[in-house]
Request: fold
Amino acid sequence: MTDNKAGKSANMAASMDPHEHGVAAESPETAPQQDGAPEMVPAEQVKAALDAAADFKDRLLRTLADMENLRKRTERDVAEARLYGITGFARDVLQVADNMHRALDHIGDQLRSSVDPTVKSLVEGVDLTERELVKVLEKHGVKMFSPLGEKFDPNLHQAMFEMPGSGYPNGHVAQVIQSGYMIGERVLRPAMVAVAKGEKAPTVDTTA
Reply:
């Protein structure tokens, strides 16, 4: 009876042999990956991902730099428009300032010291108005300059004539005929000037 049981067990083992039924045994290399185990990423994919990230970072930095430059340029354009937008109006106002300045220049000391209260009040009113007008212009970035004694600069000065024997160095402003004005860093109107013309220094004969 024992022999019969042993024979049956052997027959059952033989019937379950995978090789006999065409089923290959799983090796460690071909066994399916267990759930939760990390998958191996090929090196080429890692390099491609890093390159894409670097390219994205570079484009982002360039975009941010362009936006910052645009912001600064816009602020500069707005500031210049605010400052230089009144250029035409300021030139027209300068004519009024010039007329008032000439009127004050033509008022003699006798009128300035007049005992007549009406005349004295009129002169003081014109003088006060002229000074107030200059302050208003300066408030809006328009400044007057009078370059007496400075070296002649064609960018700032308009030469009307030469003045010999003025006592100023040759090529310097000897007389200001009309003051100039700047608006910001630009010349609104050049100063009309006379330029000193000095005598030529005598030549010394060194061959003797």
Remarks:
- The helical segments are 2-15, 43-84, 87-106, 109-112, 117-139.
- Confidence is low (pLDDT under 50) at residues 21-31.
- The CA atoms of residues 4 and 10 lie 10 Å apart.
